[in-house]
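Reading a protein record of the kind used here takes only a little practice. The integers have meaning only within a learned vocabulary of local backbone shapes. With that in mind, consider the following protein and its fold in token form:
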Amino acid sequence: MKVYSEISSNKLKTWLIMIFFVVFITTAIYVFSQAFGYGLSMVGFALILSGLMSLGSYFYSDKIVLSMSGAKEIKKEDNKDLYNTIQNLTIAAGVPLPKIYIIEDNSPNAFATGRNPEKAVIAVTTGLLTTLSKAELEGVISHELSHVKNFDTRLMAVVSILVGFIALISDFFMRSLWFGSGDNDNKNSSQGVFMLIGIAFAILSPIAAVLIQLAVSRKREFLADASGALLTRYPEGLASALEKIAAYPRPMKNANNATAHLFISNPFKDKEGKNPFVGLFNTHPPIAERIKILRSM
């Protein structure tokens, strides 16, 4: 696989998504302001707001994701085995040692975040530590370090914040419809058209946001599986770990739609594999397919 070209592609995609976000949010707020009769006065505000949100998501998304997940930072003395495992693998991967976080949750799972390898974070659940063997844990950590090395963490962290914000402004518009624009008697035909376009934006934009997640997540997981197996030279370790993770029946306590795509496995266990239509909108490739590919290496 062309790993280095994938890294360059991820860097480019991060900026393209941020530019798309600025354009999309500006357009949406323009439509919403026209629908409510505010004219062009809101467009400048929309441009500033969307730009600040893009920059904020770039620099602070890791902190937001960690807070939403209930993750707590640990030091070497808190868990020497985990610390040494991650340290040894970072040396092999040629990346800086990331900060290490633990999530108090019996559901085995893990994720990596951070805008670059120097600011990277790896978080694992307590369930992962108690469920997996050493070789299996190394497989999971190598997968997450591959996300770091391939700059997936920056791309996925930015996406998680932007998806949430798009959903927020869409919900705000739909709720505002209940209160009216304040000048219902004097609405012209142009406002009516913008109102219809605004409703369409509010309905379709969260779907578009989910499709962005799908576009950047599934390929990233396959790539990280392969890169992780290359790092440990033992694909069976990750394959076996994925089997155990998939076998655990209960979802994570703090599972969140905005951050689900960051984890090595979908934290919403109850949504996996039960409905073919829901599966189309899953941010993760099927674990069975991932295991099959790993065991074919």
Observations:
- The chain has one domain: 3-295.
- The chain is about 65% helix and 5% strand.
- Residues 83 and 118 are 17 Å apart (CA to CA).
